[in-house]
């Protein structure tokens, strides 16, 4: 069965390592017949949640006018969410984190999401995978809270400069993970 997969990218560096990870996953998922949308949070203006609790009360997901209102319908149509991101200070970059925080609007607005599965694709300059524990734990807690099934985590360490990921097997792993989605 074909799934609608939304891939949120978090890097402000176009064509960088995490962007390439996202593209590899998308290529695999498309080969398996899934529909994908790639949404670059870094190219959008998504402000942080201010906890006004007026979500969906004014005809849009967020009462604060920003690009989350463009993203919200894509989230509503998705069966799976993929987070493709660089590691920033042991967590998500602010561009992606703001979008994640505004998932709160679906809870406050009592709007169910179809999303049932998720994936984390993360890369960074740090060599030691212990440095990625913070982002992985955050991802797992988000998935658990929202009752999403984790379908895979790919960590690509030691990729700092643009195209460093080409020297690893991470793109192959991401494509294989995309292909494996049922």
TrEMBL record:
<dbReference type="InterPro" id="IPR005025">
    <property type="entry name" value="FMN_Rdtase-like_dom"/>
</dbReference>
<dbReference type="Pfam" id="PF03358">
    <property type="entry name" value="FMN_red"/>
</dbReference>
<protein>
    <submittedName>
        <fullName>Flavodoxin family protein</fullName>
    </submittedName>
</protein>
<dbReference type="InterPro" id="IPR029039">
    <property type="entry name" value="Flavoprotein-like_sf"/>
</dbReference>
<keyword id="KW-0288">FMN</keyword>
<feature type="domain" description="NADPH-dependent FMN reductase-like">
    <location>
        <begin position="4"/>
        <end position="126"/>
    </location>
</feature>
<dbReference type="InterPro" id="IPR051796">
    <property type="entry name" value="ISF_SsuE-like"/>
</dbReference>
<keyword id="KW-0285">Flavoprotein</keyword>
<dbReference type="GO" id="GO:0016491">
    <property type="term" value="F:oxidoreductase activity"/>
</dbReference>
